[in-house]
Amino acid sequence: MAAQIDIDEVHWLLDIVQCLDVGVIVLDRQYRVEVWNSFMENHSGMGPSQVYGKTLFELFGEVDEAWFRRKADSVLQLGTRAFSLWEQRPYLLHFKNYQPITGHEDFMYQNVTFLPLVGAKGEVEHLCVVIYDVTAVAILKKQLAARGGQ
């Protein structure tokens, strides 16, 4: 019975991950995609079957590989989170901006969280990359700064 509960929990957890309005990517230690949620599918135009097993760098040439590896390696080695804010780097993945109100921006501004994922043996085995669309906030902050406020 306990195994059935675990399987049921996995199913609804996967449903939650698919419904989140943030991008969720899980990479193995070689940066190959293992999880790709519907946010990623909708904004990249690529489904899970197209990305599974490919490296993030194969899929997105715009990713600064050296920067990404430094960020990810610290997460994988230390087992701690890392972050990237749109003010430091406007985006990780160049997605079009589809927001109707803020549609005058060409791309989606993104905050990114890098999370270590610990396996059953207690070691960090995967990296979870969470991408937040912060375009509306970025535009408002830029407009405020342009008006002399901050």
TrEMBL record:
Pfam short name (any one): PAS_4
Keywords (A to Z) from UniProt: Kinase, Transferase
Record's keyword annotation contains Ion transport: no
PAS domain ranges (all copies): 9-79
Gene Ontology molecular function terms on file: kinase activity
InterPro entries: PAS (IPR000014), PAS-like_dom_sf (IPR035965), PAS_4 (IPR013656)
UniProt keyword annotation of Zinc-finger present: no
Protein's UniProt name: PAS fold-containing protein
Species this chain originates from: Pseudomonas indica
